[in-house]
Amino acid sequence: MDFREFILIFGLMLLKIGACLEQICWDFEKGPCYAALGYPLYLQINDLFGSNWTFSKIDNTQNEPVCRTNSGMTGNECDHVLNRVEYYSRNFLLINRVIRADSGNYNLSLSYRAPDVVRGRGLTIGLQINVEAPIGSVEVSISCSSSGEMRASCSSDGDPLLYSWTLNGDSLMDAISSIVLDEGTDGNITCSVKNHVSQGQKTISVKHCPVSSVSVVFVLIWCFQLMVLLGLLGGFHIYMRHVR
């Protein structure tokens, strides 16, 4: 590995650790590569330098040529990733501006030029790419029912979405977009949303739900009706005593 490649890998790792949506994949046996919709995807492939390679998307049982290069120079056999698959540094392929159609299974076939044939005729690497939309701004809202029940709802752009909640720093069990809070809940509630390519969160303050004015009016009307009923019963009782 030369100094330029070392600096490249170090820079990509910093991007991976930070909030940048550029993704880098290198261990294809552990699972799929996740790419952020609209952002670059870097594929680190050993022995890419000094070989002829063919990058093909697998459609059912047929291989559809996507892009081919000879000695590191991109050829003309490209399809939907035309002008987006690039030979990048010694051991990197770069897919620019990932789109939905890039999701799928791929084969990368390497064939070595003489005198490297002693290393074998070639190598085929299978990899899966899953494209996900990045998380957008996270929004949290609180709604109150007439009974005083509180419901917290969380929404965000992106897919797929995995939710988690905390109340005053304590984790809540519900991993869904909408949860019911106990009566009297107050403090700071946080909704965190993530997928394989990005994450986001939003914190708001929660206070007791106000008593509904409708409920107060209902109670007053009920009390008035009860007083009228008791008055009628009392009057009827007095009337019956006078009749006797």
From TrEMBL:
SUPFAM superfamilies reported for this sequence: Immunoglobulin
Presence of the UniProt keyword NADP in the record: no
Protein name: Ig-like domain-containing protein
A single GO cellular-component term on record: membrane
Ig-like domain ranges (all copies): 115-205
InterPro entries: CD2/SLAM_rcpt, Ig-like_dom, Ig-like_dom_sf, Ig-like_fold
Keyword Cell membrane: no
Bilayer-spanning residue ranges: 216-239
Keywords from the named record: Glycoprotein, Membrane, Signal, Transmembrane, Transmembrane helix
N-terminal signal peptide: 1-20
Superkingdom to which the source organism belongs: Eukaryota
Localisation: Membrane
Principal subcellular localisation of the protein: membrane
